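Pipeline run #58 for the internal structure catalog. This entry was flagged by the ingest filter as a single-chain record with no existing model, so it goes straight to prediction. Upstream metadata was stripped on purpose; only the residue string is passed forward. Reviewer on rotation: M.T. Logging verbosity set to normal.
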Amino acid sequence: MALTDVAIEKIKTMILDGRLKPGDKLPREADLADQLGISRSPLREAVSVLSMLRILDVRRGDGTYVTSLTPDLLLETMSFIIDFHQDSGILDLFEVRRALEPMAAEKAALLMSADDVAELLALTGAVDVDSPVGDVVANDLEFHHRIATAAGNPVLCSLIDSVAGRTHQARTWRAVTQEDAFEQTKREHRAIALAIGDRQPSVAAALSLSHVAGIENWIRRNLGPDATTA
C-alpha cells in the first residue's frame, strides 16, 4: 500500500474510533506525522485528498479541521462525479432514480406524518396545466424531495436530490414535448402520495417505480439508443 494510502487509512481510523470528532482540529503536521509513524510528505498528500473528499477542511493560517461529516457535505463529491458524467447518458441517471426512489417511497409510507402527507397531497394540486413549465418542473422536484426527506435517511435523500437535480433538463423537455405529461405526472404523484398516506409501503414503492420507469422509457423511445443528453 502506498504511504499516502496508509496515511489516509490512519486518519480515517482516528475519525472512526472517536479520537478525532467533527469540528476537531488536527495536531500540527510534524506532531501528527510522528503520532502516525509516517513522514510529512505522504501525510500532506493524505490531507489534500481528504480535503477534496470534504472530510478535512484546511484553513490557511489556522490549521486543518475535521469537517461536520454530514451526509450532504460528504456527498458533494458524488454530485461532482454525477456532473462530470452527465454526458454519459441521461438514461443512466434515470436508472439510478429507479433504484433509489421506490426505497424512499417505501420508507416514507412508514414514517411520514399525517400533516406532511396532507402537504404532499396539496403540492400535487399546487400547479395546473397552464402553469409555467419552470414551476411545473420545480413542483415535480419538490414532490420527490419531500418523499426522500420523509424517508428518514439523509444519505438516501442527498443521493436522490443529487441525481434528480441533474435530470432537470430532461424533465423540462418532457413537459414541453409530451402532450399529456402534466396530467400523467399529476395523476401518478397523487397515487404515490395516497399510498404513503394509507401506510402502504409496498404499494408506494411499486407506484414510484412505475412512475420513474415510465419517464425513463419515454425518454428512451424519444431519444433513441444512442442518446446522451436531453
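catalog note: Residues 84-88, 226-230 have pLDDT under 50 and may be disordered.
catalog note: The chain has twelve helices and two strands.
status: ready for reviewer M.T.
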